[in-house]
Design goal:
Helix content is about 5%, strand content about 40%. The protein is mainly β and about 475 residues long. It has two domains: about 220 residues, no CATH class; about 210 residues, no CATH class.
């Protein structure tokens, strides 16, 4: 949603909705507005003009939550989206979900000028998992189980869950689904927003509850300091794990993990976001993103315990059952303090390895990335059993630590992935001296077998790339994986 709000601030919008709904809980979902009059600024972006538009609209779930699960069985299969409710599941119409970023063409926005002429007509997409979701009425459930954000950046996501808790809100998108900036000359406009028919039917939204009409005033102006700060904070979501001090603890006695007990299952996705970059002295590098995720029955939780007076910690892996009870622990190598620029935290040393293989699958180059601070960065498959939809809303959280820390905890929860981009010096592949031809980027989880998991047969993935061009102008071709170009 854009940075600038209308005449009614977002903080007041929740109050307005709560008061309106306090009398009774409407049975179906509906589209509501925080107010009827909105003012938006038009500003110069440097590449043209744009309107910072915030219409203050929310979808409010009725007596039943709105829940959608999108999944594909393999990368060769299409994404299938189903609505899950008390009465069972039903498939959403074709075209409503085409990737893992949310619901497509959710609403239609019509804008007319003072003379009644239509000047803008466009559709908007919708992510039900908004970060600002709140209760809309006092009797709504106190918590929501649904994730925060629709994670559509990773092209190899397998399953997503999107939802609005009963009686909770989810703010809508105001900008065109094309992603192009919206521009309108200063002046007065009438705006109508209507939830499209496919979603009205799917989510049980009555026609009278599916549309709102607003008055919009566009004024020329500059983004003020508050708006710039808001714009900064609402940019791309970057997982941040603030250092925490944790009390010293005794090292646990190593216990055997039952053969049938809960364990993580680390799996590697194909490398993605692959690019070629030129460096100094006619060097050429292949940059890439790599994701390892947990498809098991226990979170991967590794605690580190400081060796007194050293920059090392002894690492132990713990196991948890479906009720969250700790059921075992085993030694799991070490953690080390990384003092390089951009790090300054504790790394677990045996999580993943990245190699560039020749066409015959023999090693050509190894990435210098060898240690990690584990974190839940990607929603890889939230449709599997025991998947943790809100991994940050738990006491099993990652703490990468400070240099003075006596212990740290690093976690990769079920259904979640940890993505690292190999674009720093020493991490990307130096291909300067490699001949043109076919290569494979190998992502390998648990390379030393230090971690205990339910299966190691799915730890490795390969992604084909083709190097070409002359020495002074190398080229990179990345064939798609079953049509996925990421």
């Amino acid at each position: 949603m854009a940075a600038l709000a209308g005449v009614m601030p977002a903080a007041l919008a929740v109050t307005w909705i709560q008061v309106a709904d306090a009398a009774a809980a409407p049975p179906g979902a509906r589209l509501v507005a925080a107010g009827k009059n909105v003012t938006a600024q038009r500003f110069d972006t440097g590449d043209g003009f744009a309107v910072a538009l915030d219409l203050g609209l929310n979808v409010v779930a009725g007596r039943e939550a709105i829940e959608v699960r999108a999944k594909r069985r393999s990368y060769a299969d299409p994404i299938v989206a189903e609505q899950v409710g008390r009465s069972g599941t039903k498939r959403l119409p074709a075209g409503t979900v085409t990737d893992m970023s949310g619901l497509k063409r959710f609403s239609t926005v019509t804008m007319k000028n003072a003379k009644g002429k239509v000047v803008r007509l466009y559709t908007t997409d919708f992510c039900p998992n908004t970060y600002d979701s709140v209760r809309s009425r006092p009797d709504a459930p106190a918590q929501t189980p649904y994730p925060q954000g629709c994670d559509g950046e990773n092209p190899f996501t397998l399953g997503s869950v999107w939802g609005i808790q009963a009686g909770w809100t989810a703010s809508t998108e105001d900008a065109p689904a094309t992603g192009k900036p919206l521009d309108l000359p200063a002046g007065k406009y009438s705006v109508t927003v209507m939830v499209n028919e496919a979603y009205r039917k799917a989510f049980g939204i009555a026609t009278k509850d599916a549309g709102v009409s607003l008055s919009l005033t566009v004024v020329n102006g500059e983004l003020d300091a508050r708006s710039r700060a808001n714009e900064h904070h609402h940019g791309p979501q970057v997982a941040q794990y603030l250092p925490e001090y944790r009390a010293a603890a005794r090292r646990p006695a190593a216990t055997a993990v039952p053969r049938t007990g809960p364990r993580p299952d680390l799996r590697s996705l194909p490398a993605w976001g692959i690019s070629m970059s030129a460096g100094p002295k006619n060097k050429w590098y292949v940059n890439f993103g790599a994701t390892v995720w947990n498809a098991g029955t226990s979170p991967l939780l590794v605690d580190g315990f400081r060796r007194s007076g050293t920059g090392l910690m002894d690492a132990y892996q713990y196991f948890f059952d479906a009720q969250g009870n700790q059921v075992g622990a085993v030694p799991a190598g070490t953690m080390e303090w990384d003092k390089r620029v951009g790090h300054f935290h504790w790394h677990f040393t045996d999580f993943a390895q990245y190699n560039l293989l020749r066409a015959d699958k023999k090693l050509a180059v190894r990435s210098g990335k060898e240690a990690f601070c584990l974190a839940n960065t990607d929603q890889v498959d939230y449709t599997i059993p025991l998947a943790k939809w809100r991994p940050m809303n738990t006491d099993l959280e990652t703490s990468c630590g400070m240099e003075s820390s006596v212990g740290v905890r690093e976690v990769l929860d079920i259904g979640n992935g940890d993505t690292y981009t190999q674009d720093r010096p020493g991490q990307s592949f130096d291909v300067t001296g490699l001949p043109n031809g076919t290569y494979h980027i190998q992502v390998k989880a648990n390379p030393a077998g230090t971690l205990s998991e339910s299966s190691t047969t799915n730890n490795t993935s390969l992604r084909k790339i083709v190097l070409g061009g002359p020495a002074k102008k190398r080229t990179l071709t990345v064939p798609p994986v079953n049509g996925i170009k990421g």
